[in-house]
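Section 5: illustrative case.
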């Protein structure tokens, strides 16, 4: 077989390139290994328990990038048996007492490639669960990242029964203990204090962030507070209010999941999807969706077994669900559920069973009575919870002046199809804070910006462009860690360079799978601006503009 000269030259060049490449790779590998040894040695020789009073060490290990960590001791209800770690870290865990009858489990993931930044992570629901995906996310972006179990393990509140110290940990003390301990250990490990301190959390975690800004304004320079569980006592009462409205699954007018997710949701889209100018299954601004359920009521001449319409009683149930929740004195307890969230809301809030977080809260915290019956919940219970305000968990500060004066910045966001915390509550808080601090919108926006994320359910997922870097896992995968696309990167740019975000561009991946490519992107506006369709391809961000309410788009 004869080879052409051209082939031989090509082969020779390829071989030389291969040799050069191999040498480079070997050198790189060797350098990396010797560096790894230092980092690893420093990690394993750290004695974290010496720096945190009365703490007990439970983990100290060097974890190389690519490791699939497993957590055999983590309670099953946290649903976090393992976590892939994408950067080299020093991992340590401590048990830290917070009183003589309470303690927190603390974790720090300290990356080899440290940017000098510190990141605290929050919790969710009524848990008790370290968000390992957020520890992996933060450490992979070079933050010394810490998390805690918020004072108890698992997804129930039973540990708070007759132990007010566990409730205090849950309300604020676990997070603050985690931050002070985390900063101390970061300094011991790197021999340098963190340059800037950040926080990221959603839902309960969003509330934790606002609480920290209120109570410990020096803990963080920047806070991402997603879908925040603000006005916590009233939120838990609002959630408890649905079961008496829907009745139990076998009650005569119970609205079934399929009625919610097809009949009712479809009618909501029919009435409101087009308000933003585009029929895409996404209601950009649900505050202007005045849903009329009578449109799908069965008429008296309809066959009584028909499933494509609602009885008058069911229409009334739907009306109550989409109405604000008022107390004994006629004062607002919590704003209405926004239309658009029904497909997922039916799984919990409208499931015809007590909502477990609220049930736990009243049983184990408000009344210390495990036999309390959620069927009989009413506005007197709401008043009792609000008056008790366990652990001062409310989180509804009328001013964050001290936090602002330290240069602190807050980015809040809320999914406009949130199925667990009505997204109408965050504009309510924005306006409350604005009144409390007596600021104009542009003045408040100097340190507190709120973005409405259309088509996003509770903290993540949904039909909209919901991937905005709001947490680890799917919430940050596949998009660059860049201010325009990622709320945490936007916060860093704001705190460190004064570059405040005007919009956040969210991404929707095909089937929510980054490997399949981007389906579309949309830039989300900061409240009170609204996303308005200008024309053109609605899958492109530039076909939309953030305009004040009442402005004509074109
Ligand atoms: C730490 O332990 C000491 C002795 O064991 C005890 O006196 C002290 O109260 C503990 N401090 C805390 C914060 O638990
Ligand atoms: C990590 O390990 C767990 C438990 O062995 C396994 O279930 C999981 O699939 C692994 N994850 C990956 C990405 O390999
Ligand atoms: C919580 O679980 C961890 C293991 O993940 C354990 O070390 C700790 O003791 C538990 N804390 C409580 C309060 O039960
Ligand atoms: C725990 O500390 C409290 C004060 O914070 C004290 O009243 C109580 O007696 C202590 N209990 C025990 C068992 O030491
Ligand atoms: C370390 O982080 C910097 C910036 O954060 C990045 O540019 C660099 O590629 C990272 N290096 C490694 C080895 O990950
Ligand atoms: C509802 O009725 C079904 C069928 O009769 C029964 O199996 C189920 O236990 C009932 N559920 C409740 C909550 O009563
Ligand atoms: C009502 O609908 C059911 C089921 O679709 C059907 O079997 C029945 O014949 C209908 N009755 C009348 C009066 O149309
Ligand atoms: C709760 O109260 C309802 C209504 O009064 C009653 O039907 C139900 O049996 C009670 N449940 C329990 C567990 O006592
Ligand atoms: C609209 O933009 C999307 C996203 O870039 C693209 O996939 C689609 O082909 C465009 N549609 C038209 C009609 O140009
Ligand atoms: Ca639409």
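Designed sequence:
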């Amino acid at each position: 077989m004869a080879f052409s000269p051209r082939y031989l030259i090509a082969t020779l060049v390829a071989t030389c390139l291969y040799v050069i490449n191999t040498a480079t790779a070997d050198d790189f590998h060797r350098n990396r290994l010797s560096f790894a040894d230092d980092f690893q040695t420093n990690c394993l020789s750290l004695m974290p328990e010496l720096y945190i009073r009365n703490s007990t060490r439970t983990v100290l290990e060097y974890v190389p990038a690519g490791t699939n960590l497993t957590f055999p001791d983590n309670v099953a209800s946290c649903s976090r048996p393992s976590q892939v770690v994408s950067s080299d870290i020093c991992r340590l865990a401590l048990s830290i007492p917070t009183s003589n009858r309470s303690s927190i489990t603390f974790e720090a993931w300290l990356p080899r490639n440290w940017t000098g930044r510190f990141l605290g992570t929050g919790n969710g629901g009524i848990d008790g669960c370290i968000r390992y995906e957020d520890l992996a996310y933060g450490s992979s972006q070079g933050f010394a990242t810490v998390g805690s179990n918020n004072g108890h393990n698992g997804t129930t509140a039973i540990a708070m029964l007759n132990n007010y110290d566990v409730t205090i940990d849950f309300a604020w003390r676990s997070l603050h203990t985690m931050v002070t301990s985390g900063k101390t250990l970061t300094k011991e490990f790197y021999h340098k204090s963190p340059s800037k301190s950040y926080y990221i959390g959603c839902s309960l975690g969003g509330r934790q962030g606002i609480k920290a800004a209120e109570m410990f304004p020096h803990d963080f320079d920047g806070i991402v507070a997603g879908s925040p569980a603000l006005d916590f006592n009233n939120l838990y009462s609002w959630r408890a209010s649905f079961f008496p409205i829907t009745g139990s699954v076998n009650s005569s007018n119970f609205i079934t999941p399929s009625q919610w997710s097809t009949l009712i949701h479809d009618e909501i889209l029919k009435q409101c999807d087009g308000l933003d100018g585009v029929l895409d299954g996404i209601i950009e601004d649900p505050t202007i969706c005045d849903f009329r359920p009578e449109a799908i009521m069965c008429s008296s001449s309809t066959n009584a077994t028909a499933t494509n319409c609602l009885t008058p009683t069911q229409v009334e149930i739907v009306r109550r669900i989409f109405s604000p929740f008022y107390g004994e004195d006629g004062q607002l307890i919590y704003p209405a559920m926004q239309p658009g969230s029904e497909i997922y809301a039916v799984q919990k809030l409208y499931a015809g069973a007590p909502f477990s977080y609220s049930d736990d809260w009243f049983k184990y915290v408000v009344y210390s009575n495990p036999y309390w019956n959620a069927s009989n919940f009413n506005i007197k219970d709401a008043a009792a919870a609000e008056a008790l305000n366990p652990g001062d968990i409310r989180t509804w500060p009328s001013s964050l002046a001290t936090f602002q004066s330290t240069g602190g910045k807050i980015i809040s966001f809320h999914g406009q199809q949130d199925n667990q915390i009505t997204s109408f509550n965050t504009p309510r808080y924005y306006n409350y804070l604005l009144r409390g601090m007596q600021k104009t919108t542009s003045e408040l926006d100097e340190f507190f910006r709120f973005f409405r994320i259309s088509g996003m359910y509770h903290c993540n997922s949904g039909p909209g462009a919901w991937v905005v870097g709001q947490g680890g896992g799917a919430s940050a995968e596949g998009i660059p860690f860049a201010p325009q696309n990622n709320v945490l990167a936007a916060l860093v740019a704001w705190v460190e360079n004064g570059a405040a975000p005007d919009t956040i561009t969210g991404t929707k991946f095909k089937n929510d799978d980054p490997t399949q490519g981007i389906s579309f992107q949309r830039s989300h506006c900061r409240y009170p601006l609204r996303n308005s369709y200008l024309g053109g391809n609605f899958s492109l961000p530039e076909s939309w503009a953030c305009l004040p309410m009442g402005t004509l788009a074109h």
